[in-house]
Amino acid sequence: xxxxxxxxxxxxxxxxxxxxxxxxxxxxxxxxxxxxxxxxxxxxxxxxxxxxxxxxxxxxxxxxxxxxxxxxxxxxxxxxxxxxxxxxxxxxxxxxxxxxxxxxxxxxxxxxxxxxxxxxxxxxxxxxxxxxxxxxxxxxxxxxxxxxxxxxxxxxxxxxxxxxxxxxxxxxxxxxxxxx
Length: 180
What we know:
70% of the residues lie in helices and 0% in strands. It is an all-alpha fold. It has 2 domains: 3-85, Rna Polymerase Sigma Factor, Chain: A, CATH 1.10.1740; 111-178, Arc Repressor Mutant, subunit A (Orthogonal Bundle), CATH 1.10.10.10. The longest helix has 29 residues, at 150-178. Keywords: Sigma factor, Transcription, Transcription regulation.
């Protein structure tokens, strides 16, 4: 079945089509959820919520632009909505700190370790870091998505990079001391 036909059948609330769409995109969208969630279980919950939203809003997809991009935007917005409900961004110090360059030696660090330290960031830093660095959103877009100021977005990104840099340096130090 073609993707367009699958989408049309989902618009008619066809359960088999919805199941097929889920099978087709759940692993890609789960990786998006994992990036923005605190842990694996929360990512699973966010994926389910995202698909509920997708099936509710699929009528709005007009076959313009990438369907996968549309799914990803809905998934990211669904996860961010959870954080907005929790008021993660209410208390924020907007002092902009110097941006930190973050260099990652892929040879020395595993993807699992990088994902782990990103997931351990405080929510507001993790969300801004992922949106800016991993998904190429601008600070203006992030500010609109998270209902924060552009300065807050920039500050949170700098703080996220600072924390990640420190964690990576600590990891390298502990690795080199263990190899002695």
